[in-house]
Amino acid sequence: YFESDTLSLRSRAEQQEPNALLAFYMLASGMRNLSEYENSQRRVDAFIEGLPADLRRDKDVYRQAERLHQLMHQHFFVTPDSQQKGGYDEDQSAIAAIFSTGRFNCISSSMLYIVLARHLHFSPRAAVLPSHVFVEVGLADNRRAEVETTSPSGFGAVHNEAFYDAAAAWFKERGLRQSSYQDYLNRQLIAPLQLAALSMLTQHTGAAHMNRVDSVRLGEISAFIDPTNPIAQSRRLQFYTSEVETLNQQNAWYDLLRLYGVTLADLRQIQPLFAEHKAIQNTIYWLHASALFA
């Protein structure tokens, strides 16, 4: 029941309640076990409760958020210098694996920092580039800081052309597409809950790490959380198309009607959002035609 219970917390996650965000981030990991979520929540609660008193009293919110980031690295990650290969793993986009292995990438470490930052009432967002994610954190004095969560010294990173020129070797060493300063200028700023939806489509959901059933389930949930995401909707529609073809071959007409009964109304809702996306439009038309045939 963890999955359905988590989805019922959507409004709380949209309000950036940290435990609700953690639940969605754990769900995005592919986790369906309530006890595993509760263990991770206890880990986070113990970390927050153990923060130094002087950090909590600090009136300099920039320094407070920076120390929170440094302590996150010291407490949760394998190595103190995550710029080295130690705790960093480019394929480790699941926050659940941080709690079990201490390994992370830009997405999973961003999710963890967002949860911790919300416990201290900061206002974080995720900044999304084609091959990278970092956090923009809003501070109480209307300042903002950009946080490269993969590095213990990444708080307050200055993203300029020199930054991306210097990072070229880092991207190349890890087989990642190099982000550029232009990518930064075109970055997409998304809410914390949208980061959960994005995580459901990333490395840990690939065939090498997750079975197809769980992967397509997360793709469908991602489309539910962020209905404007064409990648999520395309993955969801690929799954429906595959199911329809299988059920057609089996002459399983009642099962087909059940599938259409719970999907077509929602597809009509999202269809206008993708008026220019021919593949999505064509697939939805095909599903409607198949429903009439069934």
Q: Could you please describe the fold and organization of this structure?
A:
This protein is an alpha+beta fold and 294 residues long. It has 16 helices and 4 strands. It has helices spanning 2-7, 10-14, 18-28, 34-49, 53-57, 61-76, 95-101, 106-119, 161-166, 168-173, 181-185, 192-199, 212-225, 230-249, 253-270, 278-293; strands spanning 123-129, 132-138, 144-147, 188-190. A hairpin with a 5-residue loop joins strand 2 (132-138) and strand 3 (144-147). The chain starts with a helix and ends with a helix. The model is unreliable at 80-85 (pLDDT under 50).
Mean pLDDT: 91
Biggest sheet strand line-up: 3-2-1-4
* Backbone shape: globular
* Structural class assignment: alpha+beta
Uncertain runs with pLDDT below 50, 5 residues or more? 80-85
β-strand number: 4
Strand content: 5-15%
Oligomer status: single chain
Total of DSSP H or I helical runs spanning 4+ residues: 16
Which radius of gyration do the C-alpha atoms yield?
21 Å
Largest sheet geometry: 4 strands, antiparallel
Structural descriptors:
single chain; 294 residues; alpha+beta; 4-stranded antiparallel beta sheet; 4 strands; 59% helix; globular
What's the quick description here?
The protein is of the alpha+beta class.
Question: Any chance you could write out the topology, listing elements then pairs?
Answer:
Elements: H1 2-7, H2 10-14, H3 18-28, H4 34-49, H5 53-57, H6 61-76, H7 95-101, H8 106-119, E1 123-129, E2 132-138, E3 144-147, H9 161-166, H10 168-173, H11 181-185, E4 188-190, H12 192-199, H13 212-225, H14 230-249, H15 253-270, H16 278-293
Antiparallel strand pairs: 1-2, 1-4, 2-3
